[in-house]
Amino acid sequence: MTLFKRKSGIEPEEIVRALWHLPATDAVQPPAPGSSPAERNVGSPGQAAPAPTEDRNYLGEGYRLSGKLNFQGPARIDGRFEGEITATDRVTIGENAVVTANIKAASIIVAGKVNGEITATHRIELRPSAKVLGKVTAPKLVVHEDAMFEAHCAMQPEGSRPALPVSVT
Q: What is the pLDDT of residue 36?
């Protein structure tokens, strides 16, 4: 299965390091099935501890990626991403992240910059450092003080509102 199309000079090892939050000095090994970045890096001698995160999927700061990302479980983006993100759980856009994408997930937390459509089935939260341009759709929207929010907003996902009869005379 091809995860990403190779368009730029990004080596596959760089993608694995970005997604599994590995330092550049590590030899790239396939992750153990079901292991998370935090589990994979704990207890390795001479290795810096990973950034604290409970997210199973991670795109690290300093990495740039484009394409389609499909996540099972929670995900965190701290780098630059362009394309489409779909997740079954929570997606967190970190404070230093720059994302130009359509994002669909159960819940979405934005602390960085997002340009695109953001659709959540449960909740969207815009933290104080968030800058959002585009369209936001969710049953619940939390906008913290100082968050920048220039978007079309729908408080219910499309299709959940009953169709109203319209008559033209």
A: 42
131: which DSSP letter?
E
How is residue 36 written in tokens? 């998370």
Q: Are 92 and 75 in contact (CB under 8 A)?
A: yes
Q: At residue 102, what is the residue type? A: N
> One-letter amino acid identity for 15?
I
Question: How many domains in the chain?
Answer: 1
- In the block, tokens 């669909």 appear at 104
Statement: the pTM of the whole predicted model exceeds 0.70: no
Domain ranges, residue 51: 12-154
Report the pLDDT averaged over residues 51-61.
66
Q: What long-range pairs does 143-148 form, CB within 8 A, spacing at least 24?
A: 147/110
Q: pLDDT (tens digit, 9 = 90+) per residue, 63-116?
A: 898 999 998 889 999 999 999 999 999 999 999 999 999 999 999 999 999 999
Within a domain: 1: no
Euclidean distance between CA atoms 108 and 74, whole angstroms: 10
Tokens 């978007």, residue? 151
